[in-house]
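Handout, section 4.2: multi-component inputs.
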Amino acid sequence: MSEWSKLQSSVSNALANLEVEVPTGIKLLKDGVVPKKRFSVYRNNVTLSLISVLASTYPVVEEIVGEDFFATMAREFALTHLPQSPVMINYGKEFPDFLKTFAPVQELPYLSEVAQIEWHRNTAYHGANATPVTIAALGEFSEEDVPNLEFEFHPTVSLIKSKYPIVTIWQAHQQENPSEFLKGLNMDEGEAALIIRPELDVLINQVSMGTFEFLQSLYKGRSFSLSVEQAIAIEPSFDIPANLAGLFNLGAVTGVNLVRSA
Amino acid sequence: MNKTSTIKQTRLPAKAGVGLKGEHYQDICETSPDIGWFEVHPENYMGAGGAPHHYLTKIRENYPLSLHGVGLSIGGSLPPSEEHLTRVKELVDRYQPESFSEHLAWSSHESGFFNDLLPLPLTEETCQTVSEHIDLIQETLGQKLLLENPSTYVGFEREDFTEIEFLREIVKRTGCGLLLDVNNVYVSCTNHERSPEGYIKNFPMEAVGEIHLGGHAPDEDDLGNPLLIDAHDRKVVEDVWALYDQAISQKGPVATLIEWDNDVPTWDVLFSEAQLAEEVLQKYESQTSSTNASGKESDLKEPILKEQVA
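Output:
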């Protein structure tokens, strides 16, 4: 191993481990003083910049727990999850899972799932562009073919479901006064959402549990008829035309294909 | 080792430009401001689609562009990540920037990416590895690289070169150009008790293709001595403007960037900061023309090649 490689490893180690001393090889100040404060500028840059990346991806989590506590939490995450590439728009995917196990936030069980919305929002923002089709695409098929249709989804689509009202919580934190918005919210009522970026802006659309089952089934590549059955099983009043219209209006469908019966 | 013959050598206009920020996309698209060029970190445009590419494409249609990388870790002991270099290459091919620049620093090692520009000792060994890394980057991108002088807060016990000697040697070995960050000169020279004027005086101006200006934060070190931190979060200070004037008086007008990455101001504030740089450029532009008219040799010897628009 080369001299620089060895020194670089010890600097790396000292950057990510706050207990580790300033590495040998770093120039001492006058009278042999170890430049702890100078070295800590780099440590601070590393942690503060990663905290800032996480805060820009997870602004609602930050607002829920407060800026200072978020910084503590994000620092802990950053030091144990260094980025593995310089592409910071992809950094922090594991943060929602980290929140699930981070002891101090266990009394906020919905926090990790609100974070999931924010992660999907981030990936949708940077996701690939695609041209949606309109509901007229269905007109190309005969009525007896409709049950066997499969749908292709826009590449920025993701679906999320929680046993907590995470969509309402997320929406409340887009308002001036979230606590006003959240007054009387039943924390045991689960919610689901379809996240998509049809043009430039990401949309977080709350959907019913029946719609969620319908969409998730279609998304997994199952047929239209099978997906409708799944929806009706949990939501007997599931409105097929309204759901289809909603899905196409969002720009979520980029293709409709007939699959000969299996 | 000098392979510049196969390397595209386009150049930014000798005007003031600014770092392009998402906060200003709409202002710029709506008002088409009279500004020389824009610079972006390629790492912020490595998503597949959406608003960043939408706006950058629009803005690039109307302005010269510089890609200023922060992730190739040129100063590291390991070669730049092949995967990352491929992503940079894709952006260079897509946006055909007039300039590509990176830092004399490292940001990645075995454990990961540190999202900061970290210092390296200037030794025979690192001179060799940095040269190899720049050769690889220039060959891959098919474009000349401008290497930026760093802001540093610590030194190393064992070094073989001064920073200027090191940069000269790298230019000689690789044919790369230099990006002179005047704020970094001020920050590093203050931190290491050197003369910033002396640094600028000795800087190999013939290799400079771009200048950076930015704000820094004052602090103190372990002994209570001044420690400046390169923060890019405020206006350029008077002392740095004076050094910039000195640099342009030596070099002649050259593309100059206002770097403001944190606590990003309104478009108007950023634009007026760029205007201050533009005034200095114009002052020396008229002097250069009168010098040329009087038959004295100009500092601008390299021919300006027009960009190949794909």
